[in-house]
Specification:
about 300 residues; alpha/beta; D-Maltodextrin-Binding Protein, domain 2; 2 domains; 9-stranded mixed β-sheet; two-stranded parallel sheet; elongated
C-alpha cells in the first residue's frame, strides 16, 4: 500500500471518529437546553374564595412565585361558595373551599376535580373581656339561635352577647353550623364577608362571639373550649374536637398547566411539612380520622 493511500485512510478514520464524538455529545446538550426550557414556568392563574384557607395559599403563592419569577398567582377571598361558583363557570382557575363541592347547591361536582391540601380547625371565638372559657354544644346552639342573649346566663359578665356570623356563602359558617350547631338555623345577627374582618370586629366589640379558623387566632381574641376540649391540633387529628374541615382546591376538570404545577407545589414537602404546620393547619396525612361529604367520620 502506498504512503498516499495510507495517509488518506488515516484521515478518513480521524474524520469518522470526530463525527461520531460530535454525534454523541449533541443530544445531551440539546436535552439540557430543552429540560431547562421545559421547567421555566410562566403565565398567570387565579385562585378564589375560602378566607379560612387564604393565609396559607397566599404564603405558598408568594414562595411559588419566588421560585418562578415569570409566574403570577393571584389569590382572592370571597367565601367558599364564591370559589366553587367561579371555578365552575371558568372565571377562576382554582376554587378554594372549606366544604365539599357536593355540599354546595347549584354546583355540578362531577365537573370538578378535588385536591385536598390540608385540614383546618375552627373555634368559637369571643372578645377577650368575656370571662367564659368553655361552652357546651347546647349552650353554643342556644347562643347562636338567640335563646341565650346575655353572658351572665351561664356564668359570664352581665353583658349582652353580640352575635357575629360569616356571610351565607362562607364555608367556615357552613362547617361551624354543621358540626358545632348540629345544623340549627342561626339567629339574625351581623354578617361579615371575611375571616379577617370577623377577627377585627370580635377583638374590638365587647361581648362579641363568632367563629374562626385556627390560623386566624391570636392574643387579640379568645378561643373557647367545646365540651371541655380545646380546639387544638392533636384533638382534631384524633377526632376529639369535631369542628374542622378539609381545605379543598378545586379545578374544572383535571388540573393542567400552571394550575397543576401550583397544586403540586401545595402538596410538596416544603408546604406540607413546613408551611402547613407553621400556619396552624394540619396535613391531611396526619389525620387519624376522615370525613366524607355527608359528615360521616371514619377512624383510619
Amino acid at each position: 500500500m502506498s504512503r498516499k493511500v495510507k495517509w488518506l485512510l488515516a484521515l478518513c478514520c480521524v474524520l469518522a471518529l470526530t463525527i461520531a464524538l460530535a454525534g454523541c455529545g449533541a443530544p445531551q446538550q440539546t436535552g439540557q437546553k430543552e429540560d431547562s426550557k421545559a421547567t421555566e414556568l410562566s403565565g398567570s392563574i387565579t385562585a378564589v374564595a375560602s378566607t379560612a384557607m387564604q393565609p396559607l395559599v397566599e404564603e405558598a403563592a408568594n414562595k411559588f412565585m419566588e421560585k418562578n419569577p415569570k409566574v403570577q398567582v393571584s389569590i382572592q377571598g370571597g367565601g367558599s361558595g364564591t370559589g366553587l361558583t367561579q371555578v365552575s363557570q371558568g372565571a377562576a382557575n382554582i376554587g378554594n373551599s372549606d366544604i365539599f363541592a357536593e355540599e354546595k347547591e347549584g354546583i355540578n361536582a362531577t365537573q370538578l376535580a378535588d385536591t385536598k391540601v390540608c385540614v383546618v380547625g375552627m373555634a368559637t371565638v369571643v372578645n377577650p373581656g368575656v370571662t367564659v372559657d368553655n361552652v357546651t354544644k347546647q349552650q353554643l346552639i342556644d347562643i347562636f339561635t338567640g335563646k341565650i342573649t346575655n353572658w351572665k346566663q351561664f356564668g359570664g359578665p352581665d353583658q349582652k352577647i353580640v352575635l357575629i356570623n360569616r356571610a351565607k356563602g362562607s364555608g367556615t359558617r357552613a362547617t361551624f353550623k354543621k358540626f358545632a350547631l348540629d345544623g340549627k338555623e342561626e339567629a339574625v345577627g351581623m354578617e361579615i364577608d371575611s375571616s379577617g374582618q370577623v377577627k377585627k370586629i370580635v377583638a374590638e366589640t365587647p361581648g362579641a362571639i363568632s367563629y374562626l379558623a385556627l390560623s386566624y387566632i391570636d392574643k387579640s381574641i379568645k378561643a373557647l373550649k367545646l365540651e371541655g376540649v380545646e380546639p387544638a391540633g392533636e384533638n382534631i387529628v384524633n377526632g376529639k374536637y369535631p369542628v374542622w374541615a378539609y381545605q379543598h382546591m378545586y379545578t374544572k376538570g383535571e388540573p393542567a398547566g400552571l394550575a397543576k404545577e401550583f397544586l403540586q407545589y401545595m402538596l410538596s414537602d416544603e408546604v406540607q411539612n413546613t408551611l402547613v404546620p407553621e400556619m396552624d393547619y394540619i396535613p391531611s396525612t396526619k389525620m387519624k380520622v376522615e370525613r366524607d361529604a355527608q359528615g360521616k367520620v371514619t377512624q383510619l
